[in-house]
Specification:
Order of helices and strands of chain B: EHHEEHEHHHEHEHEEH
Oligomer: heterodimer
Strand content of chain A: under 5%
Radius of gyration of chain B: 20 Å
Number of domains of chain A: 1
CATH superfamily of the largest domain in chain B: P-loop containing nucleotide triphosphate hydrolases
CATH topology of the largest domain in chain B: Rossmann fold
Shape of chain B: globular
Radius of gyration of chain A: 20 Å
Largest interface: A-B, 37 and 49 residues
Order of helices and strands of chain A: HHHHHHHHHHHHHHH
Helix content of chain A: over 70%
Largest sheet of chain B: 5 strands, mixed
Strand order of the largest sheet of chain B: 5-6-3-7-8
Number of strands of chain B: 8
Distance between the termini of chain B: 32 Å
Number of helices of chain A: 15
Helix content of chain B: 25-40%
CATH class of the largest domain in chain B: Alpha Beta
Number of domains of chain B: 2
Distance between the termini of chain A: 22 Å
């Protein structure tokens, strides 16, 4: 079997990353389309995006301030600063993993790098993520949380989180084509992963407990990419400090490893998708 | 090879035909992926060899499921051949159906840019083509209307208008000129003739002898995934009708490989 010299419209003979780069404007248009369709005819429009994490935050805050009190200063901010990056990752992966299936009509008719579909889902969720910083900032002002210069670090945090999410989304998108129940598996795994990531708690709150499984829990947290990626957001927002170098280094490593692995696996399996759609 | 040339050498495309439909991980694990080993191969296309020269137009004819669309998809690069080789030189329009990728909710204007991006063109490149596309489609008054409100003729006009403006060296269209009124069909026919005189290679599927004869002198007949005839349009149609009338040969399923 040989894949012969196929050339595309505008610029010929491109493969992999450079082909994907040629289609970056398509990713932009697909993001716009997704946002347009999502907010069309809904009066509150983008406000839904801001409302969703805020409502979750209110629920958790009530639970953790009255039902099971946690002595954490400014708990709503402590929570929201981790909930936002988590929800971005969680939603992008869950929406993105069906993106090849939902675009199958197009994939059957047009030759294009299929990675544009999961990546555009990540893109539209990135817009939502960025918008949700507005209520976060408002909450910081209301709760008199100091706005420090460390906040300027946030674009780097968001970038790394996006790169990481992109890789994971591509991986799950291709797996879902071959096994449709990956979707349900991912839903369960993500739910468990949320509790095994420092979203509702922080590494410093754990201390040392005399439970046989506790060291495994700590080891898992240390190996969990989300531990570092969440810290990249929570540190500047809640603790008012720039993340330390080791956190940044590990988060960067995980992000690029995820992207490289996700893209490599996706590209390998891409041409076989059409047989399973 | 020159731009616009297509070489198809012993090409075949196979699909797995599962005895049991397995789409979940659990089933696959329980069966230890047996479905992959025992699947029968269905050859939608096999042992097809064709050479198409720059500026040539060729019509593909055949019954439903004869492999016409599969062949065009392979040339366009939507599908990879399972065996043999498909080589093309030059810019190919990578879309085999007019208006594929139109979003019903978006306006005609937005869809032109979206379609351009699907073909790998930047916004800037599409801006340069925009007025020509709208003029060709004769949709000036409707361009800011969502395409879901278009008639099927308007939809097809916009699709063809975009496809004809992407300056391909190889143009592939699955069902050409099946919609649109007579006047617009004549306009498309004229445009395709222009293309041919400019050296653009044109491959299309046709169910009508009349359309095919208008557009090209050559036709290829596909029958159960095999190339049954390749030559002038009139005898091609005779062969096609003969095959359709005659006793059915063996099924297209070949379990040998």
């Amino acid at each position: 079997m040989s894949i012969a010299a196929q050339e595309l419209t505008a610029t010929p003979r491109k493969t992999g990353v450079s082909l994907l780069l040629q289609f970056r404007q398509l990713i932009g248009l697909l993001v716009l389309r997704e946002l347009k369709v999502r907010y069309k005819r809904s009066v509150l429009g983008l406000f839904w995006t801001m409302l969703n994490p805020l409502l979750l935050m209110v629920v958790y805050t009530i639970v953790f301030s009255t039902v099971m009190p946690v002595a954490q200063h400014n708990f709503p901010l402590f929570l929201l600063s981790a909930l936002l990056p988590w929800l971005f990752f969680n939603t992008a992966v869950l929406q993105g993993l069906t993106s090849i299936l939902t675009n199958q009509e197009l994939i059957r008719k047009v030759r294009l790098p299929q990675a544009v579909f999961p990546l555009s889902v990540v893109g539209s969720n990135l817009v939502n993520f960025a918008v949700s910083f507005v209520p976060l900032l408002a909450l910081m002002l209301v709760l008199r949380q100091p706005l420090t210069r460390a906040m300027l670090f946030l674009p780097v945090s968001v970038l790394l989180l996006t790169i990481f999410t992109g890789g994971v989304t591509m991986l799950f998108a291709t797996l879902t084509v071959f096994f449709r129940d990956v979707r349900h598996l991912a839903e369960v795994l993500l739910q468990v992963l949320m509790y095994l990531s420092p979203v509702l708690y922080d590494l410093t709150m754990l201390g040392d407990r005399k439970l046989w499984w506790f060291k495994y829990f700590r080891a898992f947290l240390a190996a969990n990419p989300m531990t570092y990626l969440i810290a990249l957001v929570r540190d500047p927002v809640y603790y008012g400090r720039v993340p330390d170098l080791s956190t940044l280094g590990i988060a960067t490593g995980f992000s690029f490893a995820s992207l490289a692995l996700g893209f490599a696996i996706f590209s390998r399996l891409e041409s076989r998708h059409i047989h399973y759609l | 090879m020159r731009p616009g040339e297509i070489q198809i050498r012993n090409a075949g495309v196979s699909f797995r035909m599962y005895r049991e439909k397995i789409t979940t991980l659990k089933e696959a694990l329980v069966q230890r992926f047996r479905h992959l080993r025992t699947a029968e191969m269905f050859w939608a296309l096999r042992h097809v060899t064709l050479a198409i020269q720059p500026g040539e137009a060729i019509a593909f004819v055949g019954h439903n499921g004869s492999g016409k669309s599969t062949l065009l998809k392979t040339v366009a690069g939507v599908l990879q051949p399972s065996e043999g080789e498909v080589t093309t030189v030059g810019r190919i329009s990578p879309m085999i159906e007019l208006g594929a990728g139109f979003d019903a909710e978006l306006t005609g204007r937005d869809n032109i840019y979206l379609n351009g991006a699907l073909l790998g063109f930047s916004r800037k490149q599409m801006e340069a083509k925009f007025d020509r596309i709208v003029a060709f489609a004769e949709l000036d008054d409707f361009i800011d209307m969502p395409v879901k409100n278009y008639s099927s003729g308007m939809y097809a006009r916009l699709g063809f208008a975009i496809a004809q403006d992407v300056e391909p060296e190889i143009l592939i269209i699955d069902e050409v000129l099946s919609v649109g009124d007579e006047r617009f069909q004549a306009k498309c026919t004229a445009r395709i003739r222009d293309f041919r005189s400019a050296g653009v290679t044109f491959c299309f599927v046709s169910h009508s002898l009349e359309t095919a004869a208008k557009l090209c002198p050559r036709a290829a007949v596909l029958h159960h995934g095999r190339l049954a005839f390749d030559g002038p349009v009139e005898p091609a149609w005779e062969r096609y009708r003969e095959l359709e009338r005659g006793p059915m040969p063996g099924p297209g399923i070949d379990a040998s490989k």
